[in-house]
Q: What sequence folds into this?
């Protein structure tokens, strides 16, 4: 019963974010993300972002090494999420070749993965940085185990980790805030 209530709350919170689309520049295609496998040959244009389980995502979020992991939870229908994506893309281009990995965890409904999510990924050159997560499979223990601040109630949410140092940001991040947070973790 608790899982049903939590899933309902997560879905309600996610649906409260107004639907909005925004096209951004698709000139950069960084390859640093959660383990993804690119298809070869004529199928490479039809790249589909991989799905990840909550257990595997928890392991990824706990990585403890010299790489800075910037993980953003978003949905294509979330206006604030779409407004902050260009800031992440700018930072990705700036830090290309550095030990920084950007991953975007998509929380759209499964029925939107091959449509709206794929279109967004293609238009923004982020297909290799997006990982699909079925939010219906998340429960309160996932949030309590992996985050200090986020309970899954709203997005966007950004989690950063380098070594033992973490940073969490709930809500839309300005470019200045993103730059400052990343700079402080790269010191």
A:
């Amino acid at each position: 019963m608790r899982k049903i209530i939590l899933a309902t709350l997560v879905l309600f919170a996610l649906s409260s974010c107004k639907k909005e689309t925004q096209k951004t520049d698709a000139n950069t295609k960084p390859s640093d993300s959660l383990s993804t496998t690119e298809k070869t040959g004529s199928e490479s244009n039809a790249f589909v972002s991989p799905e990840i389980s909550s257990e595997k995502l928890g392991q990824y979020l706990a990585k403890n090494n010299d790489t800075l992991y910037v993980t953003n939870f978003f949905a294509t229908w979330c206006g604030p999420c779409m407004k902050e994506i260009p800031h992440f893309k700018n930072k990705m281009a700036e830090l290309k070749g550095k030990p920084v990995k950007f991953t975007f965890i998509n929380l759209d409904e499964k029925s939107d993965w091959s449509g709206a999510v794929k279109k967004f990924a293609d238009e923004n050159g982020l297909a290799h940085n997006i990982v699909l997560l079925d939010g219906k499979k998340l429960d309160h223990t996932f949030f309590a185990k992996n985050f200090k601040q986020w309970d899954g109630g709203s997005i966007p949410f950004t989690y950063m980790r380098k070594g033992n140092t973490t940073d969490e940001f709930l809500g839309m991040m300005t470019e200045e805030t993103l730059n400052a947070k990343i700079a402080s973790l790269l010191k």
In short: Helices lie at 2-15, 54-61, 79-94, 113-124, 140-146, 175-186. Residues 54 and 137 are 7 Å apart (CA to CA). The radius of gyration is 16 Å. The first strand starts at residue 68 and ends at 74.
